Amino acid sequence: MSYLTLYCTRKVVRPAVPEVMRTPQYNLRSRITLSLPAFIMTLRLFPAMAAAIACLFVLVPARVTAQTPAPVIFEQVRLLDLATGEASEPLDLAVSHGSILPPGSKPADAVRIPAAGQYLMPGLAEMHAHVPPQRVGEQQIHDTLLLYLAHGVTTSRGMLGEPHHLVLRAQLASGEVVGPRLLTSGPSFNGNTVSSPDAAAERVRAQFEAGYDLLKLHPGLWPEAFRAIAETAEALGMDYSGHISVAVGLDRVLESRQGSIDHLDGYGQKLVPEDHPLYGTDPGLFAVNLIEAMDPARIPELARRTAESGIANVPTQSLIENWATGDVEALMDRPAMRWIPEATQQQWRAGIENIRSRIPADSGQRFVDIRRQLIQALHEAGAVILLGADAPQILSIPGDAIHHELEIYVASGMTPAEALATGSLHVARYLDQADRYGCLAAGCVADLVLLRANPLEDINNSRAIEGVMRAGRWFGREELDRMLEEVAERATGTP
After folding, report:
1. Which of 52, 266, 337, 418 is the most buried (most CB within 10 A)?
2. What are phi and psi of 75, to 5 degrees?
3. Do the Cβ atoms of 430 and 455 come closer than 8 Å?
4. What percent of the chain has a predicted confidence (pLDDT) above 70?
5. Of 485, 374, 395, which Cα lies nearest the Cα of 147?
6. Tens-digit pLDDT profile for residues 19-34
7. Which residues contact 376 (CB under 8 A, 6 or more apart)?
8. Domains plus CATH for the chain?
């Protein structure tokens, strides 16, 4: 018999107060599985249910219903405190029903994972992720999500959503699809999708009602449209994040309650002195047209203002460095490229040639250096930085790119603990979920990464993954390798 799995959403309207302005709109969701006849009978008996509860549903076989993971005990593992930058003495840590148990807990029938000499840290977040659209097919979507998870990413913020991603979000939450927790924006707000301030406000309300977690801003907006988006979203308690349109500008955004600025967008224009000939001219992609005019002496003041605003930044610096200065052949020859389909690789190769043609000759390294100075200044000023690499974008491999991003943060002046906190502690605080995520205490969601070496001593050890736990479900190294090999086989078309 076929079953209908219903992913039901009841709206929760949060009060429009400052502390929730930077928190994505969450909903109370429930998952109900009914046989088709039972579903039809339920609608006949309770016709008002359709109006009271908005449900997204997919037809699935009963066998895909996720099982509750068995309890797990990590034996003699060292816990990494990313707030203090210290590792604990060896201890046993128990997990059951998706959460960390109090110290000393020994649940019956627990799976025991020998972890002596290994380190446990909270799972990482990719705060500028992309989930493939439904049109590319289920397998490519699932492979992308698996790549995130296998590299220690247990939360992904999808920055270009669509209705199918709402269903996918529920499937990931239930365990029916393997991958990280998904927060998803709706379709983009940009110069093509927004025709007027009134239309912008209505689009915000529609995406709120649909259940998206945040709004994604793209270029092409103008001040009145941005204001309509901001005011409507803030009244609903909904996050709006992403790019800064040229006509809107960094000043206007820093005066708003935008959640995050992605790609360090908008800063390049503010680094150009008013008396420079390039001031006010077309900045180009991420301000590459203005590289020679940028004055790094202007960075500290921008960092101070950003910290005061409370707005976060998601730098995606690894993406920019790949584009501006990376050795293309070396990047294409990375071992991680085996997970990327050949057709996509060819698209990336053509794409990077186009991008390189838009970066002024001999300016790429200066662009990278100035952006690294900006990251360091933001960090030192106390501005919020969230981990994000914009995968899968050109040359940015899902999961793998996050570790490149971490390496860049350390090279820009952060300690390894501070860099790792951008993908855990900072994200949990940004989402107003610090008591449940990004932590290793009793009651925290068991989103964990087990490492063979200590990343607090060398950030490259964040890649030494022995296993990943997502909401209590354990994926050991052997299982991860098997799944990754299957992704590689599909990428190359080999059986």
Report:
1. 266
2. -90, 125
3. no
4. 86
5. 485
6. 223 333 333 333 333 4
7. 412, 413, 414
8. 3-64 (no CATH), 124-184+259-430 (3.20.20)
